Each structure stands twice: as structure tokens, then as C-alpha cells.
Model the fold of this input.
Amino acid sequence: MTGAVEQAPGLLHNTGYAPQASILWRGIGRGPLADEAERIEVARRCGSWLHLSLSIGKADARFHRDWNSAVALLRLLEPEHHMGEAAATRRLTDLIEACTERLDWPRCLMVGNTVGKPGGNREQRITLDHAPTTFVALAKSTGSLWLRDRTPRLAPLHAPNLVGPTHTTMQSMRWSQLLWFPDGIPESLLSQALAQLPPRKPARPNPIA
Done:
């Protein structure tokens, strides 16, 4: 009489939907970063997300509810202009192109999602509040890529997000774009981001020392 045949282990069957696992890249040896200043230092030499944004609150004289107008958008860059719609469209396009020429960016960059992944975690990105650069990032985006040589499209600028509770002075309009710089964020942008940081509080003296 022969011994019992050992049964092969049963295979795990597909449950009918994709697995929910995901991989998050933090860079070689990169642990949690202490603060924004440290993140900026890391962004000089490692691939990093740059979050470009512009917020206009209700208290700002330039605040407007209907941004489907080049006249209103141009006031965010040149508040005192008195141009009509056609002239404002040409001027806004020219300013975006001029700003692009001054930026030392690659010809192509990946665009992230400012709400979800990738790049959605605030701990993994550098934030810069700057109107011209934010307009460049939005106007030359295809949705998934930013292209230096793309003709500016003003449509993305016409649809900012309304942020904050309704019917309050805390409400604001926000333009936002997230770009991935694979070789590190250019120094010119990091200098602006550093300048926007609040001053660090002096360390408290150690009473034991």
C-alpha cells in the first residue's frame, strides 16, 4: 500500500478586482522631513514635486467670481490695466510666454494631481505662491504633461477652485498646479520658496544646561 499523495497547496483566486496595494517612492534613504526648509534643501538635488499656487481672497480688491475673462485674469498680474478683452488676451499670452523664457525648466515635466496622488502628500512637495509662474504651469499643460513649447491655453485659468466656507470673508479663489522635477527643482524657484517661509522661532534655552 502506497503512502498518501501530498496535495499541492491551493492557489489564491482573483476576487474580481485589482489589488489595492500601491507603491510610494520617497527616494533612497529619505525619511520623514522636519520642516519646509529641510524639504527645500533636499529638493536641490533630488527629484521633487513643486506645488505652484495663487490664492485671491474676498478681501483682495482683485477678487472676482467670474474668471472666464482675460480682463479679470490680467488684473492679477497688472492690476492697473484698462484693456478690453481682445487686448487683454494678447497681453496675458505674451506675459506667459515671456515668463516661460526666463524659467530654467526642462522642455517637458510630469503634471501631478493637486487633490489625490501622485504628489498629493504635502510632506513630499515644495509650495510656491507666485502668480506668473502658476499661470505658466497651467497654460502650458496638456493635463498630464507640461510642455515648454506648447502655445498657452487660457482655458485652465478660467476655472480656479473656490476654497473656504460660503458666504464668509474667508472664501478665496485658488489656481493650483503640481509639477515633477526629476533632477531637482531649479535654484531660482527654491530661492523664492525660501523667501516665503515664515522666520524660524529661536530655540528655547535648555534649563538644565
